[in-house]
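Quarterly update from the structural biology core.
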Amino acid sequence: MYMDVDKIFGLFNNEEPESLQEKAEMADKLSDYQEHPLFWVGMFKKLIHNHNNFNRKVVNFLSKVDDEMLDLHDVEEAGEFIVFNRAWFWISKIDIQDRICQEAILHFSDEFLETYLNLSISYFQEFEEYEKCAHLKKIHDLVKELLN
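Predicted structure, tokenized:
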């Protein structure tokens, strides 16, 4: 399935669809996009990228709560758990043998993606989730190959 990434953002303009049929067509397009490797790799990258910013805001917000009731370290760990596991949900769908998945990785390949893959591998190594690490490492090696 070919997907024109540049046309995707047309789905998010400020114009409200007028008819029920237009709304249904928009929902179908969004649903189709969520089943595409470009979306999977993009979501992985975006989740890890925004992780530190999100964690900092949550910890800052919760630090104003009574310290006896809340351990900020636990909050940070919970945030990491959520982010890395949700990012894993998306990147786990990638099959590096599939041409469309390879093209999606190529589209998003940069130093940031390489770094986010390394961070994810380190996170899952800490919990001895080596199957996840192996999958991430295969994608990392492909990204590294594409960048060189």
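The chain has a mean pLDDT of 85.
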